[in-house]
Amino acid sequence: MTLLHLTGTGGGLGPTLAIAGVLVVLGCWYAVGLWEVLDHPQGRRQQRTRAPAVIAGVVLLVAVSVPPLGDTLENRLSTHMAQHLVILVVVAPLLAVGSPGQVLLAGLAPGVRRPLVATARRVPGRTLATPLGWLLSVAGLWVWHLPAAYDAAVRSPGVHVLEHATFLLTGWLFWARLVHLVRTPGRGIAAAAYVAAAVPPGAALGAVLTFADHPLYPLQAAHARATGVDPLLDQRIAGIVMWVPLDLVYLAVAIALFARWLSELQGGDGEVDVGSTLPSDARPAHLEVR
C-alpha cells in the first residue's frame, strides 16, 4: 500500500509498477461498479457521500505513501507515527464510510456476482456482530510497534508494505464494524462503547513511547543521530503524536455517538441509511457487503 520504501531503498521499479497496476485495476473496477450503481435512484442517493469518501481515502493514502510527502514523513519516528495515524483514523474510516465493497461487487459480471451474493446470504447475521475488527486493529497497532517488527519494516521494503497494508486492513475492519453499528437502528450506545474501548490501548502505546528512558528502535535511532536529531526526543514526540490525536479522535467519535443516542431516546428521528445500492440480482437479504 505504500510505494515509499520500494522507491527509496533499492526495492526496484518492478514492485512499484506492480502496485501501481493493482491500483489502476481496482480503480477501473470501482468505476464500472459505480456506473452500475448510479443507474438506481437509491444508489445515486447513497453514493453522493460514499463515492467521495472512497476517492478521498484513496487519494490521501497515496499522498502520504509516495514521494515527496511520503519521503518526508519517513525521515523521523515522530512523522512516521503521524503517517500511521493518518492511515488508521482518516483513510480507514473514509473507506469504511464509503463501503466500496458494494460498488466493487456491482462491478462484477452477473455470473460471478450471483454466487458471491448467494454465499453472503448464508452468512449468519451475528457474524457481523463480532468485535473482530476491534481486536485486529489493537493487535496490529501493538505488534507493528514492537521494536523487532518496526525495525524489520524499516529494513525491508516488503515488510514495510505489509505493515501499512495491515494498518489499512485492520483499521478498515475497525471502522466498518462501527459504521455497521451506526447504520443499525437501536445500536447507538453499542457504537459509542465500541469506539471508546479503543482509547486505552492507544493511550498505553503512546505512554510507552513517551516515557521510555532509552530509544526503542535501533535503526530509527541510528538514522536520527546521523541527521543530527536526538532519537529519544524524537521518540517522545512520536509517543505524544500516537497518544493524544488518536485518543482525541476516538473520544470525539464516542461522545458524538453517545449524544446521538441520547437524542434518539428523547424523540429524535434516528433515521439510518441501511439500504443497498446493488442491482436487484446482487442485493443481499441481510448483509451489507463492504
UniProtKB/TrEMBL annotation:
Keywords: Cell membrane, Membrane, Transmembrane, Transmembrane helix. Its main location: membrane. It is a multi-pass membrane protein. The keyword Cell inner membrane does not apply. It holds the Pfam family Caa3_CtaG. It is found in: Cell membrane. The chain crosses the membrane at residues 12-32, 53-70, 82-108, 128-146, 158-179, 191-212, 237-259. This is Cytochrome c oxidase assembly protein. The lineage of its organism: Bacteria, Bacillati, Actinomycetota, Actinomycetes, Propionibacteriales.
